[in-house]
Amino acid sequence: MNKAIVSGILAAGIAFAALPWLGAPAFWESFLYLLFHWIILAVSWNILSGYTGYFSFGHGAFFGAGIYGTAYLAGTIGWPFLATLPAAVFVAAALGVALGAVVFRVASVRGELFALLTLAVTFVLATIILNTKIDGGPGIYLLGVDIPKLGPSPSASLYMLGLVSAVATLLISYWIYASKFGSGLFAIHDDEDVAEVMGVPTYRFKLYALAISCGLAGLAGGIHAVFISYVTVSETFSITVPLSVVLMSILGGSRHWIGPAVGAVFITCLLYFFTSGDYAVFGRAMVGLILVVVILFMPTGVLGVFTNWRHARRKQQVMVEPPPAHEGVEGQAAPVVRLAAKPVISGEVLLQVRGLTKAFGGMKALNDVTLEVRKGEILGLIGPNGSGKSTFINVVSGHFKSTAGEIVFDGKDLTGMDAHRFAQAGIARTYQIPRPFGQMTVLENVAMVGMFGGEGMSRAEATRQAEEFIAFAGLSHRAHVLPEDLNLHQRKFLELARALAARPKLLMLDEVLSGLTPSEINEAIEMIQRIRDRGTTIIFVEHVMRAVMALTDRIVVLNYGSMIAQGNAVDVMNDDQVKAAYLGKAHA
Amino acid sequence: MTLPSLNLLLQSILSGIFIGGMYSMIGLGLGLSWGLLRQINLAHFGFVFLSAYLSYHMVSVWGIDPLLTLLILPPFFFAIGVAQQWLLSRFKISPFNSLLVTFGFTVMIESLIQYVWTADFRKLQSVYGEEKFKIGGLFVPVPELLTLLLAILFAFGVWAAMRFTDIGKAMRAMAEDGPIAAAFGINQRWLSLMLSGTCVALASIAGVCFALTFTLTPTQIFSWVGVVFAVVMLGGLGSALGPLVAGIIIGVSEAIAMAIFAPSWAPIVSFSLLILMLLFRPGKA
Question: How would you label B241-254 residue by residue, b for 16+ Cβ within 10 Å and e otherwise?
Fold first, then answer.
């Protein structure tokens, strides 16, 4: 958290708060109120949709829940206005949580499908409100609602409420952006499955983000109900709200905490400028045109362009320095990386897998596999293509849920748990095809895992330690670039650094050597040895037999999902079944 | 809640089938470009309305027979579709961003309509407008019947083209895996231009049907988005016959809901169906 930013937001808030007492014309109060209104809506939308990438077209539903919360309570049954606002927040947030609790369980409802679903929810809610006692059809008048005096004039009261809410929304948005929670949300945006495997409790995080987002939209609705003083279903639940907030956020930059606010100010001013004259139609057409132009030429928004420009500048600076290539890999200058310190092979069982089965439809990718991994050893897992090695890693990292069997790790039964529990218990993995978080720098990628994997460090601590792991993997000179700028070898090493940053008790390496040149393989073998020397247990999946022979203490062979042999390297290689699996049976 | 008479119920079911024809006529092109081009073309709705207004204008101002506009308009809209696809592919737009860009187009089309024809209600008056005949106590309005027949004709026509012609097969291959299809010699660029043109031409035909049946006002564009999306998703993206079946299912269930409860409850049927579809049949959607 940057204190200057927080005090900046507060100072701007105080400056605006002085306005009603300076005798500004009422026009300014209502115009600025509308600015605040759209800032709250756009920024709150962004907390779920911009940060996690779950684009919602249902913001109108939550805004509408707030409007009707206040309209019904204040207008129909006569609650005092201020008391209805917490109720509006609560109703909207509760609606969001109820929706999220169902929708976020269905893994395939992402992207455009999520957008559609939330749009449909808006229309369902509108129909229900229209046809029940809440509205009933004619709309609700709120002219009789008493507005408490919060400023020199009644219109100043709503202005002050809007201002306070907008300041609070910006502070919340910034706080999330700069927190560990925010890192988790951005990881969900980039690759949700990997985020979960790296220890982010994705379901819970999405639900929290949705609740905050909806609650703030409900607040904006509650205030706005009294501002417009006559609410109808068709106006409240029209497509205007969801589309405007999407447009504002995209325009300003949806990956930035203040981006949507920038977009909100721009669009509101633009619309105001046009609709105040005789050009309302042109105003709308302009908004359409701007949307098209922005998406085509600036898909990351104003602040996105700014962030990219900063990345590019950093990259150039780094290029100027002589790259300290592969520091640490040569062995002498390796920085001290404190992985879980344990003596080499103690004989104690770390991972116990019993009867593990994973079926995809009728196909058993893993069939009744029972094995143990002891503390401190390197277990080689080999087998022909399609034998179930990657499935094994996917199941033991929690990425897939097992069909049958149990997984006991370090005394804890992890069977059937969500993947982030596996990560928190101390299991880390690499992906055969590297899957870095695309919009995070190398440093952020590694720090992310430190925050959520294993014991879970604070953001500052994780970032500090991430630098050590990046140095260990020889990527220090690339710390501030995005993964797309790395070559394959560097991406593989980023995968390693990221897995190590979790300080795992068990590290599963899925073909880290494939695609590397012979000299790069040598580097990697040395590095894996040094990881083990620091006490990390390793499951090593590999086709490069030279590396398997050099590194492993024990080998397990899979074929068609079943374990066909285990033991030391030489015995396993001479096993008839193993030979048959690789080379086919001899026709005698 | 009172149960309506049998005759009224049958009449509602019939009008449900007719409105289903309208849904599927609009949904056909939308679903094709969504499933095969991976674009959610919101502008499809804008094109439907633009075509509806144009045919209104041709009939009311220039006195052209409405059925003739069915032949005049599609070529123009085909060209618009090609141009739009050229623009979108030029910038390599992601499916989600295609939604936003085409929303921008829709807003511009809406403004254009409002500028030219104002926000007043417009109704195409033609010889076919009030034509209806009676079969066994049920009224069959001609414009609706025409819409339904066109919807059936085009659904089967597109289905046959996709299934039996080389171009259709190439399109399905392209939708399955573009780069691989390209490696086997399919000209992806040309195909997607043609496909987008076809989809927008289908939108213009839907627009003429729309003008024959409904009263026009520009703000109505967005009120059709939800239900047609529901139809397209229920029918299956990229499917030709799916939207027809789904359109009739949704149309009839809405009509029954209207007859039994109240007309204002109708949207809840299609949107609840859409939500359930998204949650429980996501693999196919």
Answer: bbbbbbbbbbbbbb
Residue A344: predicted pLDDT: 54
- Mark yes or no for CB contact B274/A299 under 8 Å: no
**B137 touching A, CB under 8 A?**
no
* Helical spans, DSSP H, in A18-58: 26-52
Q: Touching check for A127 and chain B: CB below 8 Å?
A: yes
Residue A262 to residues A162, A305, B207, B249, B273, Cα–Cα distance (Å): 17, 13, 38, 45, 38
**Is the Cβ of A347 closer than 8 Å to some Cβ of chain B?**
no
Q: For B6-118+141-280, CATH number?
A: 1.10.3470
CA dist., res. A228 & res. A219, Å (int): 15
Q: Which of A197, A213, A238 is the last residue of a domain?
A: A238
**Looking at the predicted structure, is the pLDDT value of residue A325 above 70?**
no
Residue A429 lies in a domain: yes
pTM over 0.90: no
Give the DSSP letter of residue A140.
E
Distance, in Å, from the CA atom of A32 to the CA atom of A518, rounded to the nearest integer, reads 65
Q: Does A366 touch chain B (CB under 8 A)?
A: no
Please tell me the total count of domains within chain A. 2
For residue A332, the model assigns a pLDDT of: 39
Chain B stretch 12-71, residues whose beta carbon is closer than 8 A to a beta carbon of chain A: 40
Q: How far apart are CA A33 and CA A11, in angstroms?
A: 18
Task: Answer yes or no: is A306 within a domain.
Answer: no
Comparing CB atoms, the residue among B104, B267, B282 nearest residue A288 is B104
Q: Point out which residues pair with A506 in neighbouring strands.
A: A427, A537
> Tokens 């509101």 sit at which residue?
A268
ipTM strictly over 0.90?
A: no
Question: Alpha helix locations (H) across A77-201?
Answer: 81-103, 111-131, 154-178, 180-190, 192-197
Nearest to B103 among A55, A243, A282 (CB): A243
Q: For residue B74, which of B204, B212, B207 has the smallest C-alpha distance?
A: B204
Provide the pairing of β-strand A562-567 with B132-135: unpaired
Taking the Cβ of residue A26 and every Cβ of chain B, the question of whether any pair is shorter than 8 Å is answered with no
Structural domain ending residue among the three candidates A238, A261, A279: A238
Q: Which regions of A200-310 does DSSP assign to beta strands (E)? A: 230-231
Pairing of strands A230-231, A140-141: antiparallel
Comparing alpha-carbon positions, the chain B residue that sits nearest to A234 is B223
Report pLDDT digits (tens) over A469-491. 888 888 888 888 888 888 888 88
> Taking Cα atoms as reference points, which of A228, A249, A233 lies closest to residue A57?
A249
Distance CA A399, CA A418 (A): 8
